[in-house]
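SEQUENCE-TO-STRUCTURE ENTRY
===========================
Question of interest: how does this chain fold, as expressed in backbone structure tokens?
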Amino acid sequence: MKTCIVEGCTNTKIKARGMCSTHYTRWYRHGDVNRVISHLERQAHRKQYHCNVEGCNESHHAKGYCNKHYIRWKKYGDPNTTLVLPPSGLGQRTTKEARLEVIEYLGGKCVRCGFDDVRALQIDHVYDDGYMDRQKRNQRTIMGAILRGEEEGNFQVLCANCNWIKRAELEQDT
């Protein structure tokens, strides 16, 4: 069975170039299989360098950015971008309470068959653009907009059966 090529190492799990994971990582990062950097050395090295974002004095984490700006760069492609969600307008109401209010606001019954048991009622996008709408806004923001009257004519209440029938009819048309 092969062992790590580094003298004194008895590890039999070879990662690359005949070395175990520990020695290969040391060689890859520092060019020396015996170089061991302590936690304090690593912290001191990071504190030497600051975030590249103007006005940020946090210590370097990766790619020239502090942890916060690195995450933003990785997620949005720009370290200065922040995602600010508009207020939903629902306050402290739970999503379940808001859903009941929206259903009541939109008439409280299925617009096709008149079914009125809220357990089976669903809020439907009239123009079937829900997939695009949900990419831009979350559920609470959409319900807040409905309750503020900003979505007049864009939503309706359908029972689960009528909503599935509508979906089937749309698939037949395409």
About this structure: Strands lie at 121-125, 155-159.
